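Supplementary Note 2. Why include the ligand at all?

Several targets in our set were suspected to adopt different conformations when bound, so apo predictions alone were not considered sufficient. For every target with a known small-molecule partner we therefore ran a joint prediction. The input for guanosine-5'-diphosphate is given below.
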Amino acid sequence: MTNLRSSVSRFVAGAASADAFPRPAAPEVVFAGRSNVGKSSVLNAVAQRRALARVGRSPGRTRQVNFFDLGDWCRLVDLPGYGWARVARTERQSWKPLVEGYFAGGRPVALVLLLVDSRRGLGEADAGLFAWLADRGLPVRLLLTKTDLVSPAELARVVARVGERLDRPAENAPPLLISTHTGRGLAPLRALIRAAVQP
Ligand code: GDP
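The joint prediction is reproduced in token form.
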């Protein structure tokens, strides 16, 4: 079995429009979620590189689809975050065609990871994207991030609310509970990715 730890990871391309996407080369594991949800941190943790996807401010790259290779057997795809309040409308409007272009492009999508901040819970935009992906038959799994910032009781409430909200069979796998600060959930996440990309 391929070992994530031994894979060399590298940035492949950043694409601001669908015509700039690199040619598919390996099964793709897609990371989606609101801005600041912890997407770059989870991606770096999976790739075991501290600054592969830069954490926090990364002007320019934030509105692109970014592609990273883990060896030659898996490609990580970082979709632009959604849900900013302060950016220009034109920038927000570019999100939809870019993301829809990615999923309409016949790419070898092995798994979509939809990240949600444990403190916020599932918002309208998250639920909408989850339904949109599930309706297209894409394998999608919810990740609750930054679990170190909520109490166990609060986390249990968030998980229960997610379960009530996403109750269709395609949606009902329990969310993975993740903290890049404590390492919680990272081993199961790597196992999920390995299983998803296996031929
Ligand atoms: P992105 O905008 O979704 O790529 O989010 P980042 O990975 O840049 O993280 C946004 C902020 O959340 C940064 O300040 C991170 O240090 C912080 N963060 C990310 N993951 C965690 C976590 O598991 N626990 C805590 N406490 N903070 C986190």
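Strands lie at 9-15, 28-33, 65-70, 74-78, 109-117, 140-145, 176-177. Residues 9-15+32-197 form a domain with the Rossmann fold fold (CATH 3.40.50.300). Comparable summaries for the other entries are listed in the accompanying table.
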